[in-house]
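--- STAGE predict ---
source: upstream dedup step, 1 unique chain passed
mode: sequence only
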Amino acid sequence: MRNLQYSEEFTNFLIVLGTISSRALELFRQNLVGRSIQGIRKLRANSSDILTNPDLCFENVIRFKRFLDKINYKGPIAAMSDNTKLKPSLRYSSQLGCIVGSILSNEETKIQAYDDIPRIINSIKDKKAIANYVRVYILQIPLPKFPPIIIALIPNNGKDSADAIANIHKKLILEIAPQLNISILSIGSDGAAAEFGAQSIILNTKTDKKIEIIDKTLNINFNCPVFPNIGPVLRIQDPKHAKKTARNVIMSGARVLTFGKNIANFEHFFKLVNLPNSVLYKNDVIKLDRQDDGAASSVNFFKCKPSKSFTPITFEYLQHKRNIYEGYWYRKPSFLLIKRNTPEVIDIDNLQ
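--- STAGE serialize ---
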């Protein structure tokens, strides 16, 4: 069917489907209806929101600023960065006028004539500069139902140092954001060593003002820099990545995860998953997908875990006697489990 008008929601669905699999999109169109992959590319090329420069630059951030002005939002903004696996390939971009897919700058891969294409491609291969990762830089309003907005897509070889990543953060915080009056409140990451190091560099940046909270009794020593025209900037880890990290640590045994005097290990979850009424699936524990957010959430089903929650006897009791999936824990004179939507209370410290 031609010249059909599709809603924005349906178009977004087709874009996501085409991103996952172009064959799945074509199969969907053959049996139902929808935009072709060529139509989606044309729509994307004509969009005013498309990134004409993949680097972190003033033009990309000002698009985000226009969005803030449109909804009259003047609150804090969360910045996030993540390195994502990229299928290595080179191709010519008519919009950028250069070969994309390498870690070289656009100026180094600029195409002036047709004969430049094979020469530049061979140069990229000789320098082993084909990108296999892309660093995605995102800004987001930290409120529900506001989607993240990509402001940079920086190809790399997966060997970025903490200093290189910190320079990207500094460019946003020290150069671009102050000019646009964007208050960057936090810098998020997945907790990788290089990204954590970059966050540390930002937090250790010398500024005229700092926020410090020190309590020797509770062993609290918190501080963060306050940047001019920006405000305080905090370091955070993405919750989903934190869940996956905690789950993977337990399953691999690379680290020992402790809760008070007890530990959590693979044996506990292996016993739990084999119980007849277990809330976990075998794929959540055995031959699990380490990048599965759902599996990570299933394993981390406590909002806050008391010290005895991971002992085998507690697991066995709770699984056989109570439905505690996504239950709430409260700290009282003794650890108590309060089931959701019920006043019943179980004293964990005095289980029989």
